[in-house]
Design a protein that fits this description.
It is built from three helices and nine strands, in the order αβαβββαβββββ. It is an alpha+beta fold and 180 residues long.
Length: 180
């Protein structure tokens, strides 16, 4: 079955799954927090370290050498469905590996896909994204921490150099030391 714009129902379902993965902090049910789970009470610094450690392991799983952006994991407000959203936090760590050719990046993505399940990650999607370039995208959830990961191999387009971009982020949590 095909939709008007040519996307298959399967691709649409994959996209919806990816959206649920990326908006996990705003998914709602009858829970008092407005989330599908009860947020743990954790210090932001501890979650930043946890997400940073998982990001470092992801880099190791690539098994390729390149330049890596130097951004640290950072906590920010986590949007939830209630009026008291400022009490919830989430840690996000965006980073990229670049200054390598597409053949090397392809090898890195293949290594990542093979290593994720061995390292405690459940792969939710491994396939092309919805961009014109049909970039390969891997979405995964760490089974122990519920940290989510998005990796996208962005091939050279319109003068941009190829790279693999990552977004690694925690579930929402409550930081007892953070009031606003």
């Amino acid at each position: 079955m095909t939709l008007q714009n040519g996307r298959t129902v399967r691709a649409t379902l994959a996209l919806l799954g990816a959206l649920m993965l990326t908006v996990g902090c705003s998914s709602m049910d009858g829970n008092s927090s407005g989330l599908e789970y009860e947020p743990q009470v954790r210090k932001s610094r501890a979650v930043e370290e946890e997400v940073g450690t998982l990001s470092s392991r992801l880099l190791e799983m690539l098994k390729i050498k390149g330049k890596v952006t130097d951004l640290a994991p950072m906590a920010s407000s986590c949007q939830v469905g209630d009026d008291d959203t400022k009490k919830y936090r989430s840690v996000r760590h965006p980073w990229s590996i670049y200054d390598v050719d597409n053949k090397t990046l392809e090898k890195g993505m293949n290594n990542l896909a093979a290593q994720l399940p061995k390292q405690g990650w459940r792969v939710v999607k491994d396939g092309p994204d919805e961009s014109r370039n049909r970039n390969r995208e891997i979405l995964a959830v760490h089974t122990k921490t519920h940290t989510q990961m998005e990796a996208t191999w962005r091939k050279r387009s319109e003068g941009d150099d190829p790279l693999i971009s990552f977004a690694v982020y925690s579930r929402c949590f409550r930081d007892p030391g953070h009031s606003s």
